[in-house]
Amino acid sequence: MSGERVLAVEHLSKAFDGVRAMRDVSFGVAAGELCALIGPNGAGKTTCFNCINGQLRPDSGRVWLAGVEVTGRAPRDMALAGVGRTFQVAATFASMSVRENVEIALLSHAGLAEAYLGRGSGTRRAQADALLERAGIATLADRHCGALPYGDAKRVELALALAGNPKLLLMDEPTAGMAQAERSALMATAAELARRDRVAVLFTEHDMDVVFGHADRIVVLDRGRVIADASPEVVRADANVQAVYLGTPAA
Fold it and tell me: Per DSSP, which regions of 112-178 are E strands?
């Protein structure tokens, strides 16, 4: 991995009622890098995300963000430290415009009460419009979120995640529920943001066309362990990965 390491995960383990969801997981993501975290259902991907972002505290191991240990910090503290996150299901204020949603996110990250009182409209217009431009949806600024197609709603969620000017962007199933063309377009936008703004991007994804088409590097989990951490070309050819997840090619 080249470049400045933004995220470092060291020997993370987590169990639930005796069932080990993660076992000694270690990897890192560099500035400007798009890294995919993949594996079969139950491999530990969501648990790993939640331990990085603070929804869960690992039983052991450490999480570092830009050289500072952040293990177990609350999600709000992680956001303030420079971690943005999108979720499998896009969540926006449906009755508000796209621009207003982003303005509220900007005010919230600034710690301003107007965000929570719903009176933030208009106060961060220029910043909001700039974020919508980065997310590729500037033309939708005045549309109400409740009327958006799902693919556009996912892009609004990306703009919301960027409102905190993150060093690290966590994208959990970013293309779930989207048409194939929308999937490729969204991930191309994420890749452009990563490289232009030097954001480290870690994403989970079940669509292997998306993973192998856009990831710079792939980390593969199986039963809570890292079984591969390499370039897409190396991972695709890995016999162990083929056996447990990608499927063994026909002879």
Answer: 168-172
Query: In CATH, what number does 1-82+166-251 get?
Result: 3.40.50.300
Residue for token digits 């556009």?
Answer: 152
Q: How far apart are CA 67 and CA 249, in angstroms?
A: 41
pLDDT in tens, 201-238: 999 998 999 999 999 999 999 999 999 999 999 999 99
Q: Domain map of the chain by residue range? A: 1-82+166-251, 88-165
Distance of CA 136 to the CA centre of its chain: 17
For residue 36, the SS3 value is strand
Beta bridge partners of 85: 170
Q: How many CB atoms lie within 10 A of CB 55?
A: 14
187, 214 contact by CB (below 8 A):
yes
Greatest distance between any 2 Cα atoms in the chain: 63
3-state DSSP assignment of residue 228: strand
Tracing tokens 């710079």 back to the chain, one arrives at 216
pTM of the model: 0.89
CA nearest to 136, candidates 181, 95, 185, 101? 185
Q: How far is CA 59 from the centre of its chain?
A: 23
> Which residue is listed with tokens 């695709």?
236
DSSP assignment of 88-101: SS----TTSBHHHH
